[in-house]
Amino acid sequence: MTENTNFTLPDSDGAEFKASEHLPLVLYFYPKDSTSGCTTEAREFTELAGEFRKLGYTVAGVSRDSQKSHQNFICRYGLGITLLSDPEEKVCRQFDVIHEKNMYGRKVQGVVRSTFVIGKDGKIVFEWRKVKAAGHAAQVLEAVKGA
Questions:
Q1: What single DSSP character describes residue 11?
Q2: Where would I find the Thioredoxin domain in this sequence (predicted)?
Q3: What's the rounded Cα separation, in Å, for the pair 1 and 95?
Q4: CA-to-CA distance for 83 and 75, rounded, in angstroms?
């Protein structure tokens, strides 16, 4: 993985999200909108978004889904976090979260659920890979509270 944490991606409304303008940042990568684990994780980050904001952190989720898919996901579940669209996997590859996975007995390239906390200086402070969705947002919050 690169030490370069700077990137720009479109959010669900098509606006440019420049990571450097949202530091410190909790950046989480997830496989697919509206799937059970991804919905659990997004809802938990939404529930804790106010606490992250009080500590100065922006929370943003990244997947390969389209902006329209993100809009539907946000509306369907009342999500209160920023979702970024990376269909070309540019940022997913930058953070090395695309790996071979076993999907119903087939080998596929997919997003491995991962989270990075990026400090005000643009450096990665914490990193979690192969995350279990349930309870993860609270784990990240505890880490940033202790930082």
A1: B
A2: 1-147
A3: 5
A4: 12
User: pLDDT in tens for each of the 147 residues of the chain?
Assistant: 447 889 999 999 999 999 999 999 999 999 999 998 999 999 999 999 999 999 999 999 999 999 999 999 999 999 999 999 999 999 999 999 998 877 778 888 889 999 999 999 999 999 999 999 999 999 999 999 987
Amino acid at 110: G
Tokens at 116, concatenated: 């990075």
Catalytic residues: 38
Amino acid at 49: A
> What counts of helices (H) and strands (E) characterise the chain?
4, 9
123, two tokens: 């450096």
CB 81 within 8 A of CB 45: yes
For residue 34, what are its two tokens? Answer: 């509206």
To which H or E segment does residue 54 belong? helix 36-54
